[in-house]
Amino acid sequence: MNIESIVAAFGIGLLGAGHCMGMCGGILASLKFANGNENLSYSRLSFGYNFGRVSSYVFIGIVAASFPNFSTQTGIPISRTLAGILIVLMGFYIAGWWHGLVYLEKVGKFFWQFLKPLGQRVMPITTFRSAVIAGLIWGWLPCGLVYSALALALTQSQPIHGAWVMLAFGIGTLPIMLGASFSFDALRHWLKKKSTKLSVAALYCIFGVWTLLAAWGFVPHFHLESIGIFPCDSEHSMH
User: Fold this and answer.
1) Could you say which DSSP state residue 192 is in?
2) Domain ranges in the chain?
3) Using the 8-state DSSP alphabet, how is residue 225 labeled?
4) Please, how many CA atoms are within 13 Å of residue 172, restricted to the half-sphere of its CB?
């Protein structure tokens, strides 16, 4: 497992603040409204919601990394190349230069129509348990940001590595999602600034190009196995 996948996944989540707020801002606002704008209660429910959401990402990462890795079978870095392209396109999407990822999200909406009614059953969210359940369901919400991170999970050779990639992504989203508990309006205003969007878009493009260069061997991989964080598996290691 290579370090750049973890760093890129974390960066995708951390930098995707505006997209996160757009996709989940409504449910966060509903949590605050349902609990009388009490910060302590809202923060507890917000933590439960985000715990469920990130748990779903981890599960999705396990599933994604369980599929056969065509890169190891063909010798061509198909999955990692796709990941790099998606990250660059996410940068274009955030900057408003190209909105092609909307079509990818529309594909996910086909499956979302079956899950959304389950999420509506726990509304309004007034207990920690219902917040966790809502997060578990909303973690499957069609989102280009999630798909970009998921493409990185697909490049992993073992399910546990896919889980770590998506966990890194989920942790990256937490500062903005939990921080919204107390500064929702101010944060949303800052994220709408053109300068903010362009800066984030540029960083996404850098992440994407970095991923593409690493995929084709123009920059070295830094494997976590080499520093003892994960045991080395010579049969499944990506090179």
Assistant:
1) T
2) 3-227
3) G
4) 26
| CA-based radius of gyration for the chain | 18
**Tens of pLDDT along 131-183?**
999 999 999 988 888 988 898 898 888 899 999 999 999 999 888 887 665 55
- Cα–Cα distance, 61 to 117 (Å, whole number): 24
97: its two tokens: 């230069």
Structure confidence at residue 184 (pLDDT): 58
Establish how many alpha carbons lie within 13 A of residue 96's alpha carbon, considering only the half-sphere containing its beta carbon.
9
Four-residue CA torsion sign, 59, 90, 11, 218: positive
Q: Where are the alpha helices (DSSP H) in the chain?
A: 3-15, 17-34, 39-66, 70-74, 78-95, 101-120, 128-138, 144-154, 159-191, 194-215
Predicted confidence (pLDDT) per residue in 91-142, tens digit? 898 888 888 877 888 888 888 888 888 888 888 888 889 999 999 999 998 8
First to last CA, the chain: 9
